[in-house]
Amino acid sequence: MFRNQYDTDVTTWSPAGRLFQVEYAMEAVKQGSAAIGLRSKTHVVLACVNKANSELSSHQKKIFKVDDHIGVAIAGLTADGRVLSRYMRSECINYSFTYESPLPVGRLVVQLADKAQSSIRHYLGSDLGGMWLKIIFGAQLCKASLVKKKGFGSLKKGGSEQNWFLPKEVCVTLVPSRVGFCCLEMVWERVLTSVQLIKRVYGPRYCLDSGSCGQFSIQLRNCYLVGTGILWERGKRGLKDGFSFTFLGLFRGSLIGAILMVWRVHKFYWMLKIVLLDLSHLMLFVYSLCACCPFMFGFPPHEVLVTAWWVCTQRSWKRPYGVGLLVAGLDESGAHLYYNCPSGNYFEYQAFAIGSRSQAAKTYLERRFGTFQNSSREDLIKDALFAIRETLQGEKLKSSICTVTVLGVGEPFHILDQETVQGLINAFEMAGEEAPAADQGAAGEEGAAGEVGAAAEEGGATEEGGAATEEGAAPMDI
Amino acid sequence: MNLMDSSHSNPMSLCSQADSQRTLYPYVTGTSVIGVKYKDGILMAADMGGSYGSTLRYKSVERMKPIGKHSLLGASGEISDFQEILHYLDELILYDNMWDDGNSLGPKEVHSYLTRVMYNRRNKFNPLWNSLVLGGVKNGQKYLGTVSMIGVHFEDNHVATGFGNHLARPILRDEWHEDLSFEDGVKLLEKCMRVLLYRDRSAVNKLQIAKITEEGVTISQPYSLKTFWGFSAFQNPTVGAEGSW
C-alpha cells in the first residue's frame, strides 16, 4: 500500500471503496510480535512471543486475563490493547454483578467490535441528579465544507497561521484542508427557554443582551473552555430565535476555536450546534455537532444541564484501535476463540496466529487443526508451543521468550509459570533442535515433528511458500 | 414512553414534589405465593385476589407470569409494581433475544437482575412493594429463589411470600422431599393454599398452579379448593353463651 490522497483521515473513502486508515491500522497488528490461539472442545490455549525493547527491560504484557472464563492475547499497539482489555474486564465484571453469571464470550466480542467500529463517540448527558439525555441517532462521519455564515464575521486567511481575536467579532484563520463533519441529533421534548439553557450551559455570569459579549466558560467533561464571543440577536444573523457564541480557547492544551449555536426549530424542539475547530495542528478538522436532545424523563427544564463530552483530535478515539485481539473464552456453548480486527470485524477460529511472522505459525496450524477439536489439554499446549517456535525463525524456544496461557472446563484462565513451560518444552523438544541456527531449522527437524521442520524451512517465505510447504509436508503427513 | 429505568437515579427523590411519587404504602395487593421444586422443575401456586385494603376487590388477577424461555415469576404485594417489574423484564428479555446468539438468560440471571433492581429502588427510598418468587429450569438445572422488596434474596427448595412464610413453610419443611412427583407436588401446594384460605384474610378461593419444566411453562386454569365448614362448633354457636355471636 502506498501513500495516497485518501489516507489521511479515517473518515475518507477512497474511490475504490476502501478506508485506508483502517487498513493501515491492520498493518500495525502485523508489526506486533506474534500471538497464537487454538482451541479444542473443552480448552483454549493462547500463547505469545515475549518481545522486550532491550535486554535491560522486561517484556510487554500481551496476554490479559479478562475474567475467569475469558482471556485475550493482543498484537499491535500494546497501549491500545491495554485500554481495550480494561474495557473488557469492566464489561465482564458489570455483567457478573448484575446477573451473577459469566458474560457469554460471543457477546463481549460483539461489543468490542462495535467499539472498534465507531471511531468517534459523543454523548450529551447531564450529571445533575443523574439525569440522562440519550442520544437517539448515531454519529455518521461525512464530509462537509466549512460554510461562511452570513453576518458571522468573515473568515480571514492571514499570512501567518496565527489566530487572533477581536471583541465583538471572531476571526479564525484557517488552512484549507480536509474537514470532518459529525452530526448527532437529539431532540428536546420539553420547552427550554434560551435563558435557562444559557445559564446552564454557559454559567451564571452570562448576560443575554444581544450584541453583548463577555467571558464565559463551558465545562466540557473535566476541562474548561474559556473565551469570549458574541451573541447573535434573536432573529438576526440568520438565526431565528436563538443565540450563538463563538470563541477561542484552550482545550486540553491545544488551541481550539468553537462556535456554539442554539435555536428553536419548533415549539418544543431546540437545535444545538457546536462547531469545533482544532487549530493547534493547523490542520482543519471541523466538528459540527448538531444536537437535539430527546428529553424523555419528565424533568422540568431547569433541571437540565447539558454537558458535552468533546472529542479532541489528539484523543485515541479519533483513530481506529491499532491492535488485533485473540479472545479466548469458555461459556455454556463450549470453548471459543475469536479474532477481533481493528476494522471492527470479528471471526471465530479453531486456531489462529497474528503478528509478525505469524504466517509460519498459521501454516503449521493449518496442517494440524483437524485434530484440535478432540485434542487433550497437553496436546493443545504442545501444538501451541510448536506454533510459537515456527514464528521464532530458528531462535531457540525457551520459556523466557514465550508466555502460554490455558483456559478450560473446570480450569479458570491462567498463565502457565515458567518452570512448567520449560518442562513442557524439554519434554516436547526433539533431538534435532540444536541445528536450527545453522540450517534455518530444516534438516535438523526430522523426526516425529518432521512436518514442523518442513514448515520452519518455509517459514520465511510468503503465502506462496505455504503452498509449497504443503507439498513438502505431504509425505510426512500426520 | 416511560424510560425511567431503575438503574438510573431518580432526581425527583430530593425535591419536595417527589414525595408524592414515591411508594409509601401499597394500595392493591396480592397475598402469598408458594413455590416448590419437584422432580421435573418448579411448581408455584398463587390465588387470584387483588385486595384494596381490606376489601377483596379484584378476583381475577394473574400473579404468576412466564419470563423468557426458562423462568416463571410470581409476586405478592402491590400489583402495579408487579406490572412495572414485568415491563422491565420484558425489555430485558427483548434485548436478550435481540442478540440472537444462542445464549439466553436463565432463572439465575433473572433472579440476580431482579435483586439488583429491588435493592437499588430500596436505596432510593422508593421500593417496588413486592415479594417475588422466581423459579425456572435451564439445562436440567432447577432454580427457585425469592427477592423481597428491600432486596433480601436467597434460593431454596421451597419458598413462600407473605403469610405463606408463616403458614405454608412449616408444612413444606415437614412434607417436602426431593423428587416429588407432579401429583404429590400439587397436593402439597393445595394443602398449603387451603390453610392460607382458611387463615389469611386476604386470600380468595380462586387459585392457579403453575409449573415450569425444561419444556416450558404451563399455568393452569383458575379453580377453587373445597372447603369444609361443617364443624359441630359452628352449629348453634351461641349455645351455652347467650348473647354472644
TrEMBL record, chain A:
> Which parts of this chain are annotated as the region Disordered?
435-478
Q: To which protein family does this belong?
A: Belongs to the peptidase T1A family.
GO CC annotations?
Answer: proteasome core complex, alpha-subunit complex
- Which sequence ranges are marked TM in the entry? 243-263, 275-297
SUPFAM superfamilies recorded: N-terminal nucleophile aminohydrolases (Ntn hydrolases) (SSF56235)
Q: Fetch the InterPro entries from UniProt.
A: Ntn_hydrolases_N, Proteasome_alpha, Proteasome_alpha-type, Proteasome_asu_N, Proteasome_sua/b
| Keywords noted in UniProt | Membrane, Proteasome, Transmembrane, Transmembrane helix
Q: Which gene encodes it?
A: PAF2
What is the name of this protein?
Proteasome subunit alpha type-1-B
Among Pfam families, the record links this protein to: Proteasome, Proteasome_A_N
Listed under GO biological process in this entry are: ubiquitin-dependent protein catabolic process
According to the entry, every stretch annotated as the Proteasome alpha-type subunits domain falls at 6-28
TrEMBL record, chain B:
Gene Ontology terms: cellular component: cytosol; nucleus; proteasome core complex, beta-subunit complex
Q: Which UniProt keywords apply?
A: Cytoplasm, Nucleus, Proteasome
Gene3D superfamilies on file: Glutamine Phosphoribosylpyrophosphate, subunit 1, domain 1
Q: Which GO biological process annotations does it have?
A: proteasome-mediated ubiquitin-dependent protein catabolic process
Domain of life where this protein originates: Eukaryota
- Where found in the cell? Cytoplasm; Nucleus
Q: Which PROSITE patterns match?
A: PROTEASOME_BETA_1, PROTEASOME_BETA_2
Question: What does the UniProt function comment say about this protein?
Answer: Non-catalytic component of the proteasome.
Q: Which PANTHER family match?
A: PROTEASOME SUBUNIT ALPHA/BETA (PTHR11599)
Q: Which family does it belong to?
A: Belongs to the peptidase T1B family.
Q: How does it assemble?
A: Component of the 20S core complex of the 26S proteasome. The 26S proteasome is composed of a core protease (CP), known as the 20S proteasome, capped at one or both ends by the 19S regulatory particle (RP/PA700). The 20S proteasome core is composed of 28 subunits that are arranged in four stacked rings, resulting in a barrel-shaped structure. The two end rings are each formed by seven alpha subunits, and the two central rings are each formed by seven beta subunits. The catalytic chamber with the active sites is on the inside of the barrel.
| The protein's name in its UniProt record | Proteasome subunit beta
